[in-house]
Protein: TetR family transcriptional regulator
Organism: Enterobacter soli
Amino acid sequence: MPPRAKTKLPPPSTAHSSTDAQPVLQQGAQLTRERILQAARELVLEEGASRLTLDAVVVRAGLSKGAFLYHFKTKRDLFVTLIDEMIRAFDAVQANHERRFAGDLWLALKRIPISAASAAWAGIGLLGNLGIGALLLGDLASVTRWSGTALIAAGIACLSFV
């Protein structure tokens, strides 16, 4: 028998090396975290913050309790994250709104996005479930004033001093 010719093998793939696997793992963890947050957002909007439970979130997200607890140690941690996220989103909407309607207060009040206003009211329910942390209260007070004004200007709510 003639000797077999040596074939040159391709270099080993680096796609599965430990250095390349780290970003993939981080992306997976980030996607899991986002699934949890999205499930919690949906539940708050559909059922209210008082009905938000760990079990409901993991079922909605299609994850295990262990996956939830890896990202959020307690339900309070999840609430704080949701509120922080809402405040940052609200600040961005408010800054854009102020740029668009600078100098015309009446038009600014009539044009406040209702979606931003109603999302802010959902944040109030989250705070109620947290026991209202002092640090968050100042930020949420601003959001509440702005969103309440939007709902009143749109004719969805009215002022009452009862």
